[in-house]
Design goal:
By secondary structure, the protein is mainly α. It has one domain. It is built from four helices and no strands. It has helices at about 5-10, 20-45, 45-65, 75-90. It is globular.
Length: about 90
C-alpha cells in the first residue's frame, strides 16, 4: 500500500488515492478511527468520560493523524497513545 493510502486513512490528506473508491476509503478511515477510539477508551475510560463526545472525537482524530503509531496491531496502541499525549502536553506548554 502506498503512502497516499496511509495519508488518507490517517486524515493527513483528503485526496482519495488512485485505484481506490471514495466510499471504500471513507469506510476504511472510519473503521481505523473507530478501532483507535475503542482501544484507547478500553485503557482510559475515565478520560473518555471526562472529555465528552466532541473533545474525545477531536483527540482520537489528532492521535490517528499525528501520532507515531505505526504498528499494525491495535493492542500496541496504548503505548503510542501515551507517547502522543506526553508529546502533545509538552508542545502546549
Amino acid at each position: 500500500m502506498s503512502a497516499h493510502f496511509y495519508d488518507y486513512v490517517r486524515g493527513l490528506s483528503d485526496q482519495v488515492p488512485a485505484g481506490y473508491s471514495d466510499n471504500g476509503m471513507r469506510a476504511y478511515r472510519h473503521l481505523v478511527h473507530l478501532g483507535a477510539s475503542q482501544m484507547v477508551e478500553a485503557h482510559f475510560p475515565e478520560l473518555r468520560e471526562q472529555l465528552g463526545d466532541e473533545a474525545w472525537r477531536e483527540l482520537i482524530t489528532a492521535f490517528v493523524r499525528d501520532s507515531r503509531w505505526s504498528s499494525p496491531y491495535y493492542g500496541d496502541m496504548k503505548d503510542a497513545f501515551l507517547e502522543f499525549i506526553a508529546r502533545e502536553s509538552t508542545r502546549e506548554d
